[in-house]
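Summarise what follows for lecture notes:
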Amino acid sequence: MPVKNDPRTWSPLRKNLSLFLISTASMVAALAANIQNPAVEQMEQDLPATPSQFSLSISIFILTQGLFPLMWSAISEVKGRKLVYVLSLALFTLGSIIVALSKHIAPVIGFRCLQAAGSSAVMAIGAASLADIFEPAERGTKMGVYYIAPLLGPAVGPVFGGILTSVWGWRAIFWFLSLLSGVTLLCFIAFFQDTFRLERSLIYQKVLKAHIRATAFQSLENSRKSVEALPTVTRKDPAEVGKTDFDIEKLPTVKLTIRHVNFFRPLFQVLMRKNNFLILLSSGLLYAYGFVVVYATSRTLANDYGYSSLKIGLVTIAYGGGSVFGSILGGRWSDRQLAKLRVANGGKGYAEMRLASTLPGMILLPPIIIAFGWVCQKHLPIAVICIFLFLGGFFCIWIYSSSLAYIVDANVGRSSTAVAGNSAFRGIFAFIATEIAVPLQDNLGDGWMFVVWAGFVSLGCICILLVRWKGQDWRIQAEIREVERIKRADTATFSTMTSKP
């Protein structure tokens, strides 16, 4: 259930403990996505499985991990954060155990889905939990600590996977995940206190507004008194009733249930904005490339270079290392560019300004992808592959991190839904990309396959440029339309109720 005390008043020790637990859970989720990549060849032989079946297990994992945040985010707004963390970690642990025990590819595919569903929860509500706990003045620093975990997971995952596979076999990977998630689950049960506050819940705000309007209309129906005779909170113009400038503690309590959850309408409202759709399309393409490049490189290293699982993990860590540095340096560059643009604009800023910082990455990333493909095709020394993997990760995250910040900045009041929508786009595109990765690689070779991917990434960059150019106008127009629609709906409802004989 939601907490009665304000988590912002907790001691620094409890706040930082919560941050540590959430970051640890995020690390588990990030590890699960690609830790098995170095074990591709061994799993295909042992289960047995074809390359297409194995890629299906990965792509379905990504798709499920991308779509389930929509559900977890909505449930956490009704039942609180802790229940979602505990339930999702339990599902992840169960899925990991069954995959470790599996003798055939079918249960691996099925229970990897259960793993993905469980691991997606922290991606949906981790940032929301930290927003519950920390004040805006310190929130940026804490968010920076939190986001290290999702970036380190893909970086160290292949190394862990390579070591475990080399020493104990591929099943050790999933026993390791079972142990890690199980310990994290016990820590959440014992030490994590729910951070959820009703005043941060958009679902609660919506239900409460409906309750206020219903109370006001019922009073008019029963007494036929003037609107001025109603309680203060209802003495408003109908168009103003929907605003959230009231004190929740002084209003009647309304009980939230799962029936109040609408998983798809908020997402539809986000996607109806042109700027959101284009930036999410770009995000999906960039994420898909990031997932495919590691998977395809693992196959190349195993088949053409004859590398063991451990060596594959040590090579592909270069991409994760580039991602970490790209996030840190790209974030700082983004802040500097944003500050300069605000000064040039008389001290005023708007969401689209942040996208200006993506230009260096958009210029350099497509040619780096093409060059990397032909490096792999020509079987050049492994040091060259590592360099281009690092550069690809660096510039891909350079672009992606600023795009994600824009998604939050451009969707005030529905940022969690926008982030969940981003996860959905990433999951869908990564699912498609992983499904076509093996046929493309086998039929075109690494060189031409990455030429195709450079084209996809360039399309994503064009989407960002369009949003940088026209996004502010699109966003303002959409906000005006939404406000007018709410006003018309409230006025129509009020008029209908007051006109009854």
In short: Residues 91 and 149 are 21 Å apart (CA to CA). The mean pLDDT is 79. The chain has two domains: 1-200, 263-500. The two ends are 43 Å apart (CA to CA).
